Amino acid sequence: MSHQLHLNAFLMGVGHHEAAWRHPRTEARNVLRVGHFQELARIAERGKLDSVFFADGLAVGPRIERNTQAVFEPITLLSAMAVVTERVGLIATASTGYNEPYNLARKFASLDQISGGRAGWNIVTSGTADEAANFGYDQVPDHDGRYERAAEFVDAATALWDSWEDDAVVLDAETGVFADPSKVHTIDHHGDRFQVRGPLNVPRSAQGRPLLVQAGSSTSGKDFAGRYAEAVFTAQRSIPEGREFYREVKALAAGHGRDPGDVLILPGIVPFIAETEEAAKRLEQEFTDLISPEYSLRQLSQMLGLDLTDHPLDAPLPPLPPIEQIRGNQSRYQLVKELAARESLTVRSLIAALGGGRGHRTIAGTPEQIADDLQAWFEAGAADGFNVMPPYLPGGLIDFVDQVVPILQARGLFRTEYTERTLRGHYGLGRHTGRFAQVAAAAGA
Amino acid sequence: MSHQLHLNAFLMGVGHHEAAWRHPRTEARNVLRVGHFQELARIAERGKLDSVFFADGLAVGPRIERNTQAVFEPITLLSAMAVVTERVGLIATASTGYNEPYNLARKFASLDQISGGRAGWNIVTSGTADEAANFGYDQVPDHDGRYERAAEFVDAATALWDSWEDDAVVLDAETGVFADPSKVHTIDHHGDRFQVRGPLNVPRSAQGRPLLVQAGSSTSGKDFAGRYAEAVFTAQRSIPEGREFYREVKALAAGHGRDPGDVLILPGIVPFIAETEEAAKRLEQEFTDLISPEYSLRQLSQMLGLDLTDHPLDAPLPPLPPIEQIRGNQSRYQLVKELAARESLTVRSLIAALGGGRGHRTIAGTPEQIADDLQAWFEAGAADGFNVMPPYLPGGLIDFVDQVVPILQARGLFRTEYTERTLRGHYGLGRHTGRFAQVAAAAGA
């Protein structure tokens, strides 16, 4: 089998586009229907996609009017989606900032059991003031401190996932033994922020343990990805930038003693698909025209940590502070700043550019053109695959699955059938070997 | 419609009996299968039961060999059960000791959305040393302190559930408004243990907010139930004791300014059902004979906080310390102590008595006898209904639903069809009115 690319579907309400739910191609009430999300999972599975994914935040945010995400919590929602699918991977975002390692490791392990080994965790550190205020903090904990906590959190969580050996569950009715206690281990984690004895109260899953995903592109974020992530969601706007990011994260992984092939780089794309390029661009424009600048200005203000609500729409951005002064999401800040500077955008144009993909790359074209674009990035070494962010749902996902995926398959770039049953399997990572099995193997060698 | 009783099914792995999974009537591997639990939910719904329920703990516990519960986390599991049922209520146990109010309120609110208003929360304070060690505590936080934390936790969580008014979700594609920000409120909770600004990022559900359940029977536990609980799971071994507990909790509720009818008392029962009383008792004995005393001694030691593993099986219990010295689960301690004292049990007999129901009342008899027993308790004012703990699953639940429920229905004691769609509705509580709607109503009056 030739080298193939990987595809994740980023599911955001009725679409990734800011104004998706105002467009006639969507049904706004779907944001309240669990059946809508179950159907999206089935569509992704029909397309043999590696996984589906939900973003998350721990606050309603400054734009209640537009926060159509404020309905379901991702892990509970993915559990409901797991039981109507058999193969597609299920990735939830969850915060290391405002959880306990035992609780969160357990939720993911439980989802991993429910789904037969298809769970993944997109690790975020939670960088907004609104989130901090829901957990007793006057302000956002500082950026480096958040990453230090995240590292200790992941160390404890992965140790918990490893605390049961693969063959610990005995289920011997004759002798009356459910699990062999000699194969279930305390972890005795003693760190600066957490003390966790273990073991977890969930056995290992069909994939060993959940997949680790990460999306931060700040300096700390990239280093964290190199150390822990098995898949990286990233916003890259050109092949040269994508290649640079790709090389950098793979090098960081190698620097942490890992095989660079064990961390997959998946840039985001927002595809507008139509029979002709003109029709696709018209479709994109329809969505852009539905953006309300006043709401978007508030979103942009939050992204930049700068009040722009009285700033004239047709002027360029005011000068922005250096990234070191940003406590919140540094990668998003940097992206917006670079985009505005490079393309000399007015605030209005910046809002339109961000509205489609929230900073990710929009491609409007025919299925062939989109497949060409993905192939070019993949073959240039700028991507191991893509985080596909349909601008409207379910239509945008259906079109991608029914029109773009078959072209990638015909070119030998994407699987035509699942060959694996687990999320780690789809990403070519194989079953995870727990630390106790590693110790046993080393002792036997 | 005459006054009717309520029925909850306590689902524990392949049965509530200690040795259930060793008996030929069960399939031990079912403890690992989400499909098993989905089937149990369907059976409960076929029987028109009010709800199903999972216990929970945040540690694997001292008896890994026997802890068949250590597979799924209840909320994720109930989410997978919600989507294969339409009516039955879904109650999960969760700890106020080792969670944050925002996170837990959100998980339940999300389950409530996924299930269309069928979620309930059994509030526990987590009283074991094994749990404490997974969250950075050297020992179990003291009993009163746990209840103080629980009270503040529930205050914050219920405020979060009320933070959206009923008509806050607008979903107006024309104007581009998802929610009306004037109807989504911060809660600004400032307490000794928690600071939570809110609002929650989940709207109100079909039942307003999740049902609150409680199961502690210590002095603090009963007061807590009187203050907050809408349903109480309790272990009561005789009608006089049941009546006393019933009167006490209802009076406590009245003392907190509540309608005593808004807190339902549901004692636990473990039914062994067969065509004759003799056959039912033989069936019970088969299960008792499968108990391994050495494992049960460890469980008993944990319940009492006293190492009994070297104590002779055929001697009575050693003298037990006064309840005030118990940091852990005081209600379970008191129950075991009283049971041992009243019936002058040897340790072996105590283990057998506890093995069936872990302290709850076992009834072995014909379907008629079991229905008679439940009716007697109900009509004596000792119960508003029952927490049914099938000793083996699914068989014990199937027999209860197919053989006992029809008798209760024929006597007019139990619904023959669901008349409501929500858990609160089943329990006769009506939709919960949020505090902002209450304020508005008061202002309008």
From TrEMBL, chains A, B:
EC number: 1.-.-.-
Domain Luciferase-like: 32-382
Source domain of life: Bacteria
UniProt entry keywords in alphabetical sequence: Flavoprotein, FMN, Monooxygenase, Oxidoreductase
Pfam family, one: Bac_luciferase
Gene3D superfamilies the record matches: Luciferase-like domain (3.20.20.30)
A molecular function (GO) term: oxidoreductase activity
NCBIfam families (UniProt xref): FMN_nitrolo
Family: Belongs to the NtaA/SnaA/DszA monooxygenase family.
Protein name per UniProt: LLM class flavin-dependent oxidoreductase
